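Bit of a strange request maybe. I'm writing a small parser for C-alpha cell strings and I need a real example to test against, not something I typed by hand. Could someone generate the C-alpha cells for this chain?
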Amino acid sequence: MNAPQTSIRSQVSEQEWQLRVDLAAAYRLVALHGWDDLVFTHISAKIPGPEHHFLINPYGLMFDEITASSLVKIDMACNPVMPTPYRVNPAGFVIHSAIHEVREDAGCVLHTHTRAGVAVSAQKRGLLPISQQATVIMRSLAYHDYEGIAVRDDEKVRLQSNLGSANYLMLRNHGLLTVGRTMADAFLYMYTFESACQVQIGALAGGAEVIEVGETVLDTVRHAIGVQRNVLPTEQVYAALKRKLDRRNPGYDQ
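Reply from user aminoacidic:
Good idea to test on real output. This should exercise your parser:
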C-alpha cells in the first residue's frame, strides 16, 4: 500500500492556508459569475514574506474545480517551490509576475477575458464615464496596448510602466485586470469593472446618444468611495460571497 500523501495544509503556515482558501474561492466565484474562459486567465495572490512567492492556478483545471490545495506556489522565475503535479501557463506568469514584482501593494491580481471586457478594450476610447460603476474606476484606470499573447519577458517593463499606481488596467484587445491589496479588494474591483463594461456595451447597442459624466463629478467620487468602504468594507462583502459559494459550490477550502 502506498504511504498517504502529506496534506498541503500541514506544510504551510495558517496565513498561507487562509490565502489559499480565499484564492480558491475567487476562482470559483469568477466561474459562478460567468467570467471564466475555460482554463485560461488567472488570479494570483502574493504570499507575505521576503521570498516573493505567489500562488496561481494549476493550468488545465476549470475554475469551478480549483481548491486551496491544488493552487501552485511559484517564485519570480516561475519555478514551483513545492511539489505539484501541475504546471503553470507561461502567459499568466508573465503578466502576474510583472505586477507582483513592482507593486508592493499587489496582494492579488485578477485578470479576465469576458466578452464585455474584451469588447470595451477594443473600442478606441475605452471605458466611457457613462455609469456609476465607470465613475468609480475612471480615476484609477490605466491602459496597456496589445502585443500578442503575453509570453515574452520584455513586455513586463511596458506592463509595469502602463499600470503605474492604478488599480484597474484595460489590456487593449485582450481583457480586464485589477490589482487589490487583498483578495476581497481585487474581486470587488473586477465586479465593478465588468459591470461598467456590460453597461457600456448595452448602452451603445441601444443606438441613442449617451450622457457622459463630467470631470467635476468624477473628482467627487473618490471621497464617496472612501466613505462607502468605511460603511461596508470589501472583506465583509467577500465573506458574504463565500457564504453564497458555500451554498452553490462548496469544497474550495480543501
